[in-house]
Amino acid sequence: MSDKTLNISWVYPDLLNLHGDRGNVMALEKVAKLMGITPKVTRVDTFSERIDFENSDIILFNVGEVKTVAPIVENLKKYGNGIYDFANRNKVIVAVGSTGAILAKQLKRRDGSTVEGLGILDMNCVERNEIYGDDLYYTLDDKTEILAVQIHIVDFFLENENDALGKIVYGKGNNDSDSTEGAKKNNVYFTNALGPVFVKNPWFAQKIIAEAMKQKGVEIEAKDLSKEFETELKSAEYIKKFIKNKG
């Protein structure tokens, strides 16, 4: 009998909750249930609590302030190869917003100091002197459309544009110089998209969940959830019209 339980480790939920992104956890729970999966969320509230890499299916890092990057990286490195082994086993890691810097090779702060990241994703980051905010609209490789907002305080530079999570239709994405959005390596995902992203785009949550279950050896039958996502789909169409009118 297959284990249709989705184990989500919600890491540092109070520290990484800059834009109310606890909604990402709520969306993952709701979409999992619609897919016939039982979600189990485990909060890792403090640095003294351990992340259970062995029994996690998704590790979620929501968005936080830039100053949180250094202490989070330092704490994660105390696990030795824990998070690296998790990533190398094709398990799912999701990082949102500026928290993506913990997965990068290096973050350069505005004061000229640098923070060494985990280096799981081949990218480098630079803290911006000003904050940028606007709508964000991008497509995944399979043409899935993602609509969100972006409050951008870190520029991300991929070493290989093929590692991008998506391609920008509207908005800034990773930086001013290319049309990339986010990053993906195996099942490690980074996106600048806020909203929260899985609330506004439950079809994206569905993809993430299906992949997480696949990696634990559970094939989930594809379901058409468009009826359940009717409100979000209508919202997406209105947002696209609004963006088009902005030019």
Mean residue pLDDT: 96
* Cα separation of the termini: 53 Å
Task: Please give the number of β-strands.
Answer: 12
Total separate domains:
1
User: Which CATH first-tier class would you pick?
Assistant: Alpha Beta
> Rounded to an integer, what's the Rg over CA atoms?
17 Å
CATH architecture: 3-Layer(aba) Sandwich
Q: How helical, in percent, are the residues?
A: 25-40%
The major β-sheet equals:
6 strands, mixed
Order of helices and strands: EHEEHHEEEEEEEEEHHH
The SS-based structural class is alpha/beta
Strand composition percent: 25-35%
| Separate helix tally | 6
Order of strands across the main sheet: 2-1-3-4-12-11
And the CATH topology?
Rossmann fold
Poorly predicted residue ranges: none
Give the full name of the CATH homologous superfamily: Class I glutamine amidotransferase (GATase) domain
Descriptive notes:
The protein is 26% helix and 30% strand. It is an alpha/beta fold. The chain has one domain (5-246): Class I glutamine amidotransferase (GATase) domain (Rossmann fold, 3-Layer(aba) Sandwich). The strands form two sheets. The chain has a six-stranded mixed β-sheet, covered by helices on one side. Strands 5, 6, 7, 8, 9 and 10 form a six-stranded mixed β-sheet that branches. The longest helix is centred in the last third of the chain and has 17 residues, at 230-246. It starts with a strand and ends with a helix.
Question: What's the short story on this structure?
Answer:
This protein is of the alpha/beta class. The protein has 6 helices and 12 strands.
